[in-house]
Specification:
3 copies of one chain form a homotrimer. The first copy, chain A, is flat. Helix content of chain A is 15%, strand content 26%. A 12-stranded mixed beta sheet of chain A has the order 7-10-13-16-19-24-27-30-33-36-38-39, with helices on one face. The first copy, chain A, folds into 3 domains: 87 residues, MurE/MurF, N-terminal domain (Udp-n-acetylmuramoylalanyl-d-glutamate--2,6- Diaminopimelate Ligase, Chain: A, domain 1), CATH 3.40.1390; 211 residues, UDP N-Acetylglucosamine Acyltransferase, domain 1, CATH 2.160.10; 29 residues. Chains in contact: A-B, A-C, B-C. At the A-B interface, strand 22, helix 4 and helix 5 of A face helix 3, helix 4 and helix 5 of B.
Chain lengths: 351, 351, 351
């Protein structure tokens, strides 16, 4: 664990009280470090997220374990809690003993345009730039070097990490998190071919991001051509993702690292798209569809469908193809043998 | 539409005059918003880019439509213009009523090295840094937080968006646009294996970018080892693209998002490379070649060839393979049946 | 070659002495430019890295060639050196005549928190930000706009290029190089699904990077959930790479551009992973494994194995599959013919 600042020790009972848990074993035992099962050493506290990790627990040196009630474990001190993961997060934070985040005000080295409106209790770091006519909600944290272009509108409790960039007119809901070096609202990739040259088509739309969206680092979401590129509320986007102009992403999607979606495509709610997937332009991914890693989507995907492969097909079909693919060299030999047996012509070349 | 600043309304006739168009219908009608066919509401102006979108037009609520001459549409007010897209762009800008971009000078919070030469009418934002001996042409706009390393040379009318980085010695032609958080001139990935370690080989070349090139956000173009990495004039590069050291990209290419090209490879003019394509090192892509999304290029591609797949093959071959691939499980069953009929041995295991 | 600053000419003998090489031919000849074989002009010096480039040498206009001893070449002046590449690097640098890098101190426009400890001879550029309680080793170079969050710890001789971002608590060994716009320590992609929403799980681990690691530009390495994400010493990471939370990357790996590795996966030492590879979560790549470009790794890879394809299989199997794949349309025709000959049913539809 890092950034420990000034770690302090607590008794098992103090930690159990913190998470409204029950102690089984020595409540007076002192604990200093919280670590995963694999990394824990004698004296540390760890946690069991799921029964399936019981073998790791048995191999772990951890002395104190946060577990669900009714899981019998011998030889360790236990804190039984209804939600062991949430309890462990609280315990880790307690032991890390970091100071609470308090509003830092506006650093005098930030460049906030006089026409910008900044809400209550801001934290704006050095070298952050906030452009003309921006409206920034309450309690926003704008980290060092972040650049918010003119006419942007940020809701309350928004966090913009260092060196992230919002171009002109980007709109973010409440509690949106934008990680470092991500770019929202750069021009969409729009050109027309005229007289031997690709001529830029002005990109005049916006980017609109709903409440509770989190966007990873080095991700790019382009502004629309004439309409907004939209991200629905609650959607979580990983690092290095590309969302092209005019896309309309539904609510509560998970878009995993290095996936990309081309212009004017859209997704329903609760869609999950795995890493390195590519989706072509002007298609729709139905709600609750799940697209497997590295898939190449070339057409609409119905709601609820699990899809794999490039070009993407329903998971069941793709799995049958993949199994057959492994047999392909053997199939080729078989065909050769059959043709021999039948006295059919066999081409001379051999792959 | 966003960043509307201070939108104003105009009559249909005023907008038609702006684009040298002909009014069919009520020229005195007032228009406030320009929107796409799908998003337009009663009273809005929209446009028809191509006949194939006629069904969308019929379903649209737009009251005023910018169209090519000679397309008969009933029940709407029309502005007939030779180039409806260009006309619509002009109309959108008119309605958005944003102030003209005027030179902003050099912000006192920028760090411009005293030895750098900056041309006429610059716009250099706060926290931009321009290194020793840089030469910056006329009317360049260097946005907040952009970093231009020493000995760079920028042509006239170059735009560098926020937090983009040019390492030492990068050369940009006129009217080049570099979007936010893009990196030009970082060291190429060059190492030699010596005594159990990968030892860095100094990367001493440059990056040279021709006139009218546009480069998206979070894209990386590495400096050459001993020669320049070059991007030919008029080429347009999307977001999250990787161009490795010593590459020589032709003129008027389109390189789509998340594609990557490895060291010392080159492309002819007018090449189009779709999203998530990977190209190996030391190959040449002939002029006007078109490489489909997600292709993996392992060897030279002849001029004009359309290529798909990983490993990439000519489009026609690849399509035949893909069609057969869907039939693969069935083919496997057929072979089994044939072998049975012929009394041949059948392996026991079943995939 | 760029950034030539103030190039100067030297005699062949002077350059040979610089690299402890032997002159064959005219040692008094003056040389001004060093270029690759392909780009060299009359009068330039070039080098021959390997015998296999002899044809390029014969076609080159270069007048002076740095070669290994015992390679007979007629009609050129030679500098024979044991390590021609290293010798050529030294000669290029000599001819470029750039000033030595000297410590620049801490720019008054940098924001170094008063509680941060900065080692001897620093170079910290304008608009760089160094957070609370950071410890920065000797001779570090922090370029303009780089942001080092609180509680980070940097070894000696670390280089952080412009606008790179280290979140809180990132630990870097000695001689680590982080290129521009790369992000270390952003939150891992961790959520739980509760009441129809993806709820963020706090990411409380760190990022720990060993000695002599180099990380390209626009790469993202996420902080661990409860443990550190670790990069072993001597590992080299290219541009636009994604390393997810809790990964444990071995020593002396090469991770090429646009590859991604999902959460909690690990690699042994001396692993090589080519461009655009994707690796799923919770798998281990054994030491000295080599994974080919665009592979999709879905399970553990044994030590030393060469792997290709998506899903990834051992190279030998994959090559057999790929060869058969080209024959697939033909195989389909063969099966049809066989079935005809045997009087078996043939489906009517034709792909």
């Amino acid at each position: 664990m890092t950034g420990e600042g000034n770690p302090v020790s607590f008794t098992v009972r103090q930690l159990a009280d913190l998470v409204q848990g029950q102690v089984v074993g020595d409540g007076e035992r002192l604990v200093l470090h919280a670590r995963t099962l694999a990394e824990a050493r004698e004296g540390d506290i760890s946690f069991l997220e799921h029964d399936k990790y019981l073998p790791q627990l048995l191999a772990s040196q951890a002395s104190v374990i946060v577990v669900s009630p009714n899981i019998p474990i011998e030889g360790r001190t236990l804190i039984q809690a209804k939600d062991p993961l949430a309890a462990f997060v609280a315990i880790v934070k307690k032991l890390q003993n970091k100071p609470e985040l308090t509003p830092m005000g506006i650093d005098p080295r930030a460049a906030v345009h006089p026409s910008a409106q900044v809400g209550a209790d801001p934290s704006i770091g050095p070298f952050a730039a906030i452009g003309e006519h921006c409206i920034v909600g309450a309690r926003c944290r704008i980290h060092p070097g972040a650049v918010i272009g003119p006419n942007c509108k940020l809701g309350d409790d928004v966090v913009i990490y260092p060196n992230a960039v919002l171009y002109e007119g980007v709109v973010l809901g409440d509690r949106v998190i934008v990680h470092a070096n991500t770019v929202l609202g750069a021009d969409g990739f729009g050109y027309r071919f005229r007289n031997g040259k690709h001529v830029k088509v002005a990109q005049l739309g916006a980017v609109e991001v709903g409440n509770d969206v989190e966007i990873g680092s080095c991700t790019t979401i382009d502004r629309g051509a004439f309409q907004a590129t939209r991200i629905g509320e609650g959607t979580k986007i990983d690092n290095l993702v590309q969302i092209a102009h005019n896309c309309n992403i539904g609510k509560h999607n998970l878009l995993i690292s290095q996936m990309g979606i081309a212009g004017s495509s859209s997704t329903g709610d609760y869609v999950v798209i795995a890493g390195q997937v590519g989706i072509t332009d002007h298609v729709h991914i139905g709600e609750k569809a799940v697209i497997g890693a590295k898939a190449g989507v070339t057409k609409d995907i119905p709601a609820g469908q699990r899809t794999l492969g490039a070009p993407a097909t329903p998971e069941r079909d793709q799995k049958r193809i993949l199994i057959s693919l492994e047999k392909l060299p053997e199939m080729r030999k078989d065909i050769r043998k059959i043709k021999q047996q039948l006295g059919m012509d066999i081409e001379k070349e051999e792959g």
